[in-house]
Amino acid sequence: MALTRIQPAAIADVREPNFRNIVINGDCSVAQRATSAASITTAGYHTIDRYRTAISNGGTWTQSQSTDVPTGQGFATSLKMDCTTADASIGSSDYLHVQLPIEAQNLQYLKYGTDSAQTLTLSFWVKSNKTGTYCICLQKSDTTRYDYVAEYSISSVSTWEKKTIIIAPDSNIKAAGGVIDNNNGEGFKLKFTLLTGSSRYGTNDTWNTSTPADATSNQVNLADSTSNEWYVTGVQLEAGSVATDFEVISYDQNLDRCHRYYQNYITQNDKFITTGGYNAANFIYMWFRFYKTMRANPSLEINTGTDYYNVYRTGATDGIDSLAVSTNTPQGCMLYKSGESGSAGHVAFLYGNNSDVYIAFSSEL
Known about the structure:
Blueprint: H1 8-12, E1 36-40, E2 44-45, E3 52-56, E4 60-66, E5 78-85, E6 95-103, E7 120-128, E8 132-140, E9 146-154, E10 161-167, H2 171-174, E11 186-196, E12 206-208, E13 229-239, H3 251-258, E14 262-266, E15 272-280, E16 283-289, E17 299-302, E18 309-313, E19 316-320, E20 324-328, E21 332-338, E22 347-352, E23 359-362
């Protein structure tokens, strides 16, 4: 039987990604919190990982992880914004953005603050039933804040369109004020603007020095009708002046990168969570070793209620309502509960005891 030799070109087709895409979860595949969230009127992370909603008096929205995607492009999911309460009269300081904050120490190779500052290329797929002019904003917060505003057009109703925007450094970005700090704070904030008030207008294709500048005066108001919806997927921000094909990352790699900012540990009834023990007759500690090191000491997100959690220990089962943080590091977290019966030195196991329970840790930007 003849053997077929694998050519180098074939090997190259399955090589590991080099993470040229600065955006994490650009294909909207990871959604640890939920796949849908309704009645959104406040800022926060609601569904898809790394996509933050920022809103001020901009209507009411349902956000979801949608399976509506551009045909033949290899995407399985997108982010959908659906207006459920309209706001046809936008105040001067009102806004609605879908944001992707980016960690500063991951941007050092762009050489901002020097004459060698890199040009960036943003590409993405977008769709809406409301045609017209939309804007993106790339906010650089460190040292001196500059907001790069660029327009793009949605030309066809409810049709997926690919957009490419070149973001070149200017003299301000190449000067000392353009430096991005080498730390775990926010270096960039990529914004997809869906509406904005007049006090937040900027100049198109410019690093605006007067901030905030989220959009130009041509920006549509996506909140002017409850029939309006907007989708995005395939978001890629990369160094250089050419938009390359979307960098495919396996789901497990994508999830691992998202875990630096958010980790969800339980969303089911009667599911084992972690182990711990009693250091006194009425004091129990539970240790979480995180899936991976988080960006910073995380905050605890926990759903609470009567006997939402069960502690199994020697000879008994205790129902508890909640847990609080004792020790908190980027590598792990100690939770505790006082006032419980038990014996010092007893090992205990923590389980969920309600279908609504969850324990999560957030170190989002």
